[in-house]
TrEMBL record:
It is a multi-pass membrane protein. Keywords: Membrane, Transmembrane, Transmembrane helix, Transport. The chain crosses the membrane at residues 7-30, 50-70, 77-101, 107-125, 137-154, 166-185, 197-216, 222-239, 260-283, 295-313, 325-343, 349-366, 387-408, 428-448. This is MFS transporter.
Length: 452
């Protein structure tokens, strides 16, 4: 009986893991399709970035609600909701005949992934025995680490050999299989509603995120600045409403170590999403390389980062946090500086090598920065800290994509030669992000002398 129960739990983790994997896979798979989408739908670089941005925005809005959803709805109900949203979104995009239709599908996929990711880890934390939990969390993290590595290659090959819509068509059978497994493995449970959601805080948070995102997406227009004002007002309203009934526990920001390591984590997220937008677009537009080769160029670095993540955890356990994080920041800085210096050569070997060095640094420090940040706050605050990490991780990814897209767009429009404009814009975007990496790196290095 115990063995059968464990088998069902493993299948439940597999089902939610397949869905989370699919969600993260298409997050990066679409980046290599942007030049194709720009041509097919007659849109600009600043418009096409919404394919990624609207997806990440929806995840960042849904994740803060995960605690409420898990308390008030059964795992089966949440799994079914995620399946319906995901399959619906994938079907819409598989047959999208307009850019607006494509964005609608991406919106639904973002909602689905925002439900599936916390659900997978909740099943692990509540159903898996303690002695097996570490391994299962590792498998869960590996799922979401390998998917971004595979995404650009998967998207690039399908876009070049068939059509970008096959990115979605080939996911349909995977999602159907995961739904069948989940319905079999996740039992029906009666769930009493034990909590009410702070609706006002949730709405204000959504408006704040959306307003700030529109600001970064439309910096050049009055609409963008009006969106900033709306976002800031919504932020103040959220802060007030959140005090009445906590949606996100903001008191953790009073811990300086938590704040510094959170900011470092977010800078890494900005760089990861920024580079996954800049490099595939640059190499396709400037060097006239097909999407399949652009995707393959990203694969060694992304895979390296995924493989170094578990190694970094072992280094943290054995040597403490200073060595893996310190070496990681140094490697990431060296690799990123290399990208700035070699990108205009369009030499794919040099660009790939620098990206691999950067991703070694990310692999050594990215997850460890989160571990140190969360371990610096009280145990009873760690769920709140985790929610803030997860929420801002997705939101800053969306901000990054919008920001680098508008930089590219500005230089593409201001230069008579589209390729030259793209080349200059890519170097400027990478240089600005390098400044963020240096500032956050110095802040982290300063903490080394304060904590053993």
């Amino acid at each position: 009986m115990e063995q059968e129960k464990r088998f069902h739990v493993n299948l439940a983790v597999l089902a939610t893991g397949m869905m989370a994997f699919a969600g993260v896979l298409i997050e990066t798979a679409m980046n290599v399709t942007f030049p194709t989408l720009i041509e097919e739908f007659s849109i600009t670089t600043s418009q096409v970035q919404w394919v990624t941005t609207i997806y990440l925005l929806m995840i960042s809005i849904v994740v803060p609600l995960s605690s409420y959803l898990i308390k008030n709805y059964s795992k089966r109900q949440l799994f079914m909701a995620s399946s319906v949203f995901f399959i619906g979104g994938v079907l819409i995009d598989a047959f999208a005949f307009s850019f607006s239709m494509l964005l609608l599908g991406r919106l639904l996929q973002g909602v689905a992934t925002g439900i599936a990711l916390p659900l997978m880890f909740n099943i692990i934390l509540t159903k898996v025995p303690l002695e097996k939990r570490g391994m299962m969390i590792g498998i869960g993290n590996l799922t979401t680490s390998i998917a971004p590595a595979m995404g650009p290659t998967y998207g690039g090959i399908l876009t070049t050999q068939l059509n970008w819509k096959y990115i979605y068509l080939l996911l349909i059978p995977i999602l159907i299989i995961s739904t069948v497994i989940g319905l079999y493995a996740i039992p029906k449970e009666h769930k009493e509603k034990v909590d009410t959601i702070n609706t006002k805080a949730a709405i204000y948070l959504s408006v704040m995120f959306t307003g700030l995102l529109f600001f970064f997406s439309y910096l050049q227009s009055p609409f963008g600045w009006a969106s900033l004002v709306v976002g800031l007002i919504a932020g103040m309203m959220f802060y007030k409403a959140n005090k009445e009934k906590t949606l996100l526990n903001l008191s953790v920001f009073s811990n300086k170590m938590f704040t510094i390591y959170l900011l470092s984590f977010l800078v890494y997220q900005i760089l990861l999403l920024g580079v996954s937008f800049v490099l595939p677009n640059y190499i396709q537009i400037v060097s006239d390389v097909p999407a399949s080769r652009a995707g393959l160029m990203m694969f060694p670095g992304a895979l390296t980062g995924a493989l170094f993540a578990p190694i970094s955890g072992k280094m943290l356990d054995k040597f403490g946090f200073k060595k893996p994080i310190g070496i990681g920041i140094a490697a990431a800085s060296l690799g990123w500086l290399g990208l700035i210096l070699v990108i205009q050569t369009s030499n794919m070997i040099l660009i790939t090598t620098c990206h691999v060095i950067f991703m070694i640094g990310v692999g050594l420090s990215y997850s460890n920065v989160m571990t140190v940040g969360l371990s610096s706050i009280k145990t009873n605050e760690q769920d709140d800290g985790n929610a803030i990490f997860s929420t801002l991780q997705q939101f800053m990814g969306a901000i990054s994509t919008s920001f680098v897209a508008i930089i590219l767009d500005v230089f593409q429009k201001s230069n008579s030669d589209y390729q030259v404009g793209t080349s200059i814009g890519a170097k400027v975007a990478l240089s600005i992000l390098f400044g963020l990496l240096i500032i956050s790196g110095i802040s982290v290095y300063k903490t080394f002398s304060k904590k053993a």
